[in-house]
Structures are given as C-alpha cells and as structure tokens.
Amino acid sequence: MLKHVLRLAALLFVIAVAVVVYLAWPDTAQVPFDRVTGKRPQITEARVQTLPTVKVADVVGWQGNETPTPAAGLTVKAFAKGLDHPRWLYRLPNGDVLVAETNSPPRKGGGIQGWVMGLLLGKAGAGVPSANRLTLLRDADGDGVAEQRHVFMTGLNSPTGMALLDGQLYVANTDSVVRVPYTDGATQITAKPELIVKLNGGGNHWARTLIAAPDGRTLYVGVGSSSNIAENGLEAEKYRANILEVYPKEKTFRIYASGLRNPQGMAISPFNKQLWTVVNERDMLGSDLAPDYLTQVELGDQFGWPWFYWGGYPDTRVEPARPDLQQYSKRPDYALGPHVAALGLAFSDEVRLGGRFAQGAFIGEHGSWNRKPVSGYKVVFVPFAARGFPAEGAKPVDVLGGFLDGNGKARGRPVVVIGDRSGALLVADDVGNTIWRVAGAR
Questions:
Q1: Between the CA of residue 130 and those of 28, 102, 148, 175, 334, what are the distances in Å?
Q2: Rounded to 5 degrees, what angle do the CA atoms 304, 309, 315 make?
Q3: Rounded Cα–Cα distance for residues 288 and 259 (Å)
Q4: Are 383 and 392 in contact (CB under 8 A)?
Q5: What's the number of CA atoms in the CB half-sphere (13 Å) around residue 392?
Q6: According to the model, what pLDDT value does residue 374 have?
Q7: Pairwise CA distance, residues 331 & 304, whole Å
Q8: Where does residue 358 rank: exposed (0-12), middle (13-18), buried (19+ CB within 10 A)?
C-alpha cells in the first residue's frame, strides 16, 4: 500500500513540476509582431497548447499626474476620472456622453479552472463587481472636461452597448436587449426597461455591443462565443459568436453574420455605409496566432470560427472537423496582430484628428493576457484608402500609448473609442477608471 502511495505522490510531484516549468517558460513569440499585422499577415504553424501562456501586465494604476502618451502633434487629458470600471461610451445628440460602468456578471464554476480565472481577472484589473449602471457625463462649457456627472440608469445586468433609435434608448445587457424612452437633455431615466429580445449569456465573452443599422429600423448586436473553440459543444454556442440583426418593432432577430469568435466594437463605414467590426480571435495556438482583426461584415458572412481562422486555416483541435465549410470561411480585411484584444472601433468621420489620422479607423486594444511578450495596451489607427478599405501596405499607427509603465506594469487598459461633439477622441480606460480625451495640438 505504501509503495502505491509513494508512486502516486511521485507522479503528482512530476506533474506539479511540469506545470511550474510550463508557466515559468511559456510560449514566446517567434515572429516579429509587425509581420502578423496588415492585409497579408504571416500565418505560421500553430503551436497548440494544453495550458495557455499566461502573461498579463500587473496593474499599478495612474500615479499623480501621469497620463497616457499621445502621438506627436496630439494632446491628452482626462475627460472624467474616478469612474467604476468604465467599459463603453455613447455620445448623445446634445453632446452628453453615456458611460457604461460595468463588468462581467458573477462567473459560475469553481475548482482549479475557476480559481485560475479569478487570479487572472484580479491580476488584469478586472476582478471587481459590476456597477451595472449608466452614468451621464456633461461638458457644458466645452473645455474638454466633464464638470457634471449624473447616475443616468441603474438596474441593468452587465450592460455594454447603447444606441438611440426612434426616440428610444436601447441597451445591451449581457443577457438581453432592452429599451427605455429617451428625452434629449435628460440626466436620469427611471422608466422600467422594456425587453426587446433575450440573449444567451454565461461562459466567456460577456459584453454585448450594439449599434443602430443604416436602415434606421434595426440594430446590430455583437455576441461573443461562450468558449475558446466550442470545447463545450456547439449547443452551448447557440446564437453566439455572431452579429445579430435585431428588429425592435417585431421583437425578433436573425443571424446577420457568424463565425466571429468575439465581435466587439462595431461602426458604420463612412465610405460605403457597410458594417465593420473588430474581433478577438482564438487562444492557445501560441504567441504568434491567431491575429485579432478588423473587417467589413455583410449579411450571411461566415468567418470560420470555430473550425477555421484567417480565412481557412484549420484549427485541428475542433471536433468534429468540417472541411466542407473551409471554402466558405471569409478572410478578414485586416490583421491587428495576435492577442491584442481589440475592443473599440471608430472611424475618422466621427474622430476628426486630421493630418495622418484623417482617413481610417481608430481601435482600442485592451491588451493581451496570453502572449509573451504582451501585445496591445494602446489605441492604434489603421489608414484607409479612398475606396474604403485599409491602404495597401498600411500598418497600425500608434495614437495613444503609455498604458504600460517602464516595468511593463499596467497603468490602465483602453477599451472603447468614440468621438466627442468636437471630433476629439474619447477613450474609456476600465482599469485606470478614467475617460481620456485626445485632441490635436493647438
């Protein structure tokens, strides 16, 4: 009996040592980051991992008068400080700004996986409870600082996306789309939200984004997958990894596009009035794969998840395989690099910084937790050509950095990006609890 116990103890010790060694020497990028960006990124052989590389910047916050670092010719200052995990922004017609102070709902599941997830969330600055409210920020004197702050709406469930349509304010909770009557200039809404459609919640990727469609009668809602590669079965992914088109009058929806692991920021292109989005791609294929991306989305598009990435590269971990779908897997328009966690998207018709930022897309990159070295943790700009797609050979241009200090620790993490009423860039920093305002130098 003792011999069996000793053998078991030795086996457990070897496993423990293997885990420690793995975590101490995680998968390191082998390809220069720049090569995994652009219209034709370098797609290398996958390095499949049983355990993910864990490399996330520890949070230290902003100290004293520290601010992010803007690109040359731009300035930055705080539009609002002291918020509670500000995740998403929406500009109202009168110039007021709504901020969703929100976070993931309580996660089910304990054990080692739940414990590890809790550690990662805390390490990344995301382990705080959701405030579940919308706050209104008003810059009445136009000096670029919000001097008024009002609790606008409460009683929500991890809200993210917001949009006005036909006098109604629509809000995307993690498990539903709701609406309330809106009056321009109001500083508070007390009406009970009306349910429009239910959304499937739970699992990973809790944030639901939402914008009004150009037709003036429907909404686009981004719903991320509940898992990495459907490892819990496709039934758990029903109406997930999709952009849904919601019909508020009928209180119904349809799948507009699929195979998008986690579509977050969405915007309507000023060039052709088509829908664009940024997407977080899959994990555990190594530090060089797979690139997050920016892409135009049309009705019926399928971008490959979970079976394929980057327009047809098979993910051999997914079972059962679907080789019959390979030819239908649409290739994205532009790679942003692996694991940058692209979340925010705004075009240059809304954000008017001029010069080299006059034509293209601004993207908030929340930053990686599973790449060595880390990637993201900044706001970038993708230049577009006159025909309405990323310019040939264009690489992402840094707009706002400095979210990591000299020791690689996170002062903040950028999320959504929008334009204020003057065309300046507003950036929600959910770890720094600040909304930053970037403008042209005067």
A1: 33, 5, 22, 14, 33
A2: 95
A3: 21
A4: no
A5: 2
A6: 97
A7: 9
A8: exposed
Paired sense of beta strands 263-268 and 252-258, if any: unpaired
**In whole angstroms, what is the distance from residue 19 CA to residue 284 CA?**
15
Locus of tokens 């950028």: 414
Q: What is the pTM of this model?
A: 0.92
Beta bridge partners of 162: 171
Strand partners for 106: none
Q: Indicate the length of the chain as a whole number.
A: 442
The candidate with the shortest Cα–Cα distance to 405, out of 372, 370, 432, is 432
Of the given ranges (19-23, 51-55, 105-109, 190-194), which has the lowest mean pLDDT? 19-23
Rg value, the chain, Cα: 22
Q: Identify the H or E element spanning 38.
A: strand 37-38
Distances (CA, A) of 334 to 110, 212, 387: 38, 23, 15
pLDDT tens digit sequence for 111-137: 444 445 555 556 555 668 999 999 999
Give the helix ranges, DSSP H, for 25-110. Answer: none
Query: Residue 83: which of 61, 66, 107 has the closest Cα?
Result: 61
Helices assigned H by DSSP within 186-257: none
Interatomic CA distance for residues 250 and 109, integer angstroms: 36
Closest C-alpha to 173, from 81, 104, 232: 104
Start-to-end CA span in the chain (Å): 80
At residue 373, does pLDDT exceed 70? yes
Q: For residue 58, give both structure tokens.
A: 């520890």
Q: What is the pLDDT of residue 27?
A: 95
Inform me whether the pLDDT recorded for 15 exceeds 90.
no
Question: Mean pLDDT over all residues of the chain?
Answer: 93
